[in-house]
């Protein structure tokens, strides 16, 4: 599973967590993770203060002061370290952390939890994510019970991808044109209403699928707004990177625990009853966000940012390449997960072995995020983006030897651990995107990550119809190394050109 703040919906039992979680590499998962303030990249680094605010980070909106989130002590301490404002009161954008930035100690995960507003967001993310996992299992079971059609049942998951693309492109502007808290709460209420209608016995199967699309369509707007709001709450320094990481870790953990909870729940209550519980989690999430987060104004003035602004982001070469670094890895990462069942079948192993293969990548992702967040400095995480991106696909080459279950699982754990590149990439992304377009950029990034995962799964299945499964996985790793190598080399050459030009 790719690192998103919320795991994406996938047509296999362990990857179906996506409608809204930030992300992986983030997730509602990704990681996409997919959480609710996560799923997005990076920023200038700084030394944590006693309250967990990174010194030197841009902690506020245009006034140069924190934009509400956190305790009074946190805001007061942050203001002491805020950069000097211009004559107009605007905070000057700092340099990208990849180029400069003090090599000071990184903030810790506990510092993130010291921010009161983040705790509310974290709780809302956890509620909605667990509810989403259960709802996707229950809805699949319900559709199959009503139709006895494996095709329609699998279509329930597939419909989680196309709406992401549509919602992420057509609705992206909502994340910046309206107050972020309002957007988050309305998205939760829309999801709660759609899920509640699924519970009505008179709702036909076609209606269930349409409602599933509605939930998926608002998911990228929700995730993008949450990512942008995370920078408002924590500043766009190291606390933001770690907060985003925490939401991705929760999303990956949901892959390991959520399906077990859902399976047990379905032995006690019918599918519609489980779906009804999901509606309650969306409502509780909306309540936590409404009561626990500060009201902030819209980032962009109403009516000033049309749909063309979404494409204008991609015309910026730096942002476009950062987007590609978020989009390309998930396209390849999902291949061993999508083909885990046929690979295990070819080895003739048990379903327990299949479960091991399915859990290996999320376990590695969680371990990698925790170690990178706790042990590495912000500057080091940024420097390791390229090495980790490439290292993550080297274990895929081992599949060419058709390894057994244990060795294949170890390879996937190693590949997942390399997903820690997202911490450094998050920092670079948040520094590159103008503040007034952060919500739009995060929404577009999330939608792209979810979409390429669906395409990657479908492509892997298609190729595996003609090529042995183990060679498909190894080939995906080789193609990823070549593609990312070219992209990183091009990016590095442009960076060197800019350096020479600016001398």
Write up this protein.
It is a single chain. The protein has helices at about 70-80, 110-115, 115-145, 150-160, 160-170, 175, 180-200, 205-235, 240-265, 270-290, 310-315, 315-340, 340-345, 350-375, 380-385, 385-390, 405-415, 420-430, 440-465, 470-500. It is mainly alpha-helical and about 500 residues long. Helix 3 runs antiparallel to helix 8 (about 205-235), helix 3 packs parallel to helix 9 and helix 7 packs antiparallel against helix 10 (about 270-290). The longest helix has about 35 residues, at about 470-500. The model is unreliable at about 5-105 and about 495-503 (pLDDT under 50).
Secondary structure elements and pairings:
Elements: H1 72-81, H2 109-113, H3 116-147, H4 150-158, H5 162-170, H6 174-177, H7 180-199, H8 205-234, H9 238-266, H10 271-292, H11 308-315, H12 317-338, H13 340-347, H14 351-375, H15 378-383, H16 385-391, H17 405-417, H18 421-432, H19 438-464, H20 469-502
């Amino acid at each position: 599973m790719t690192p998103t703040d919320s795991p994406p919906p996938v047509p296999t039992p362990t990857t179906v967590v996506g409608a809204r979680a930030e992300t992986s590499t983030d997730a509602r998962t990704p990681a996409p993770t997919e959480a609710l303030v996560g799923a997005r990249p990076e920023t200038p680094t700084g030394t944590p203060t006693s309250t967990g605010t990174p010194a030197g980070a841009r902690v506020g909106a245009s006034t140069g002061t924190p934009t509400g989130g956190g305790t009074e002590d946190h805001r007061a301490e942050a203001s002491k370290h805020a950069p000097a404002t211009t004559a107009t009161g605007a905070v000057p954008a700092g340099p990208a952390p990849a180029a400069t930035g003090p090599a000071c100690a990184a903030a810790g995960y506990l510092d993130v939890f010291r921010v009161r507003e983040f705790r509310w967001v974290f709780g809302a993310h956890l509620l909605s994510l667990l509810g989403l996992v259960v709802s996707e299992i229950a809805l699949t079971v319900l559709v199959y019970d009503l139709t006895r059609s494996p095709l329609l049942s699998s279509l329930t998951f597939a419909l989680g991808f196309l709406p992401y693309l549509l919602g992420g492109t057509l609705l992206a502007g909502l994340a910046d044109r309206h107050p972020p808290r309002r957007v988050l709460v309305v998205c939760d209420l829309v999801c709660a209403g759609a899920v509640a209608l699924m519970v009505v016995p008179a709702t036909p199967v076609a209606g269930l699928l349409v409602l599933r699309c509605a939930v998926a369509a608002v998911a990228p707007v929700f995730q993008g707004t949450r990512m942008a709001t995370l920078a408002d709450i924590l500043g766009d320094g190291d606390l933001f990177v770690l907060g985003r990481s925490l939401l991705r870790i929760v999303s990956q953990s949901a892959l390991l625990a959520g399906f077990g909870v859902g399976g047990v729940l379905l032995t006690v209550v019918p599918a519609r009853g489980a779906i009804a519980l999901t509606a309650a989690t969306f409502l509780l999430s909306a309540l936590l966000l409404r009561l626990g987060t500060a009201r902030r104004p819209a980032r962009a003035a109403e009516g000033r940012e049309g749909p063309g602004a979404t494409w204008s982001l991609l015309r910026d070469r730096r942002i476009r390449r950062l987007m590609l670094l978020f989009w390309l890895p998930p396209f390849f990462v999902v291949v061993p997960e999508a083909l885990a069942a046929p690979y295990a079948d070819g080895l003739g192993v048990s379903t327990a072995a299949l479960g091991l293969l399915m859990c290996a990548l999320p376990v590695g992702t969680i371990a990698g995020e925790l170690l990178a967040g706790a042990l590495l400095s912000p500057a080091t995480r940024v420097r390791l983006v390229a090495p980790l991106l490439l290292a993550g696909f080297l274990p895929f080459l081992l599949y060419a030897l058709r390894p057994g279950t244990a060795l294949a699982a170890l390879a996937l754990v190693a590949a997942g651990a390399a997903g820690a590149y997202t911490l450094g990439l998050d920092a670079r992304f948040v520094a590159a995107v103008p503040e007034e377009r952060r919500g739009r950029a995060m929404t577009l990034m999330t939608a792209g990550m979810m979409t390429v995962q669906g395409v990657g799964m479908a492509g892997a299945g298609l190729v595996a119809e003609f090529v042995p499964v183990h060679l498909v996985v190894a080939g995906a790793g080789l193609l990823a190394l070549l593609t990312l190598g070219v992209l990183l080399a091009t990016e590095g050459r442009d960076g060197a050109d800019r350096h020479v030009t600016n001398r």
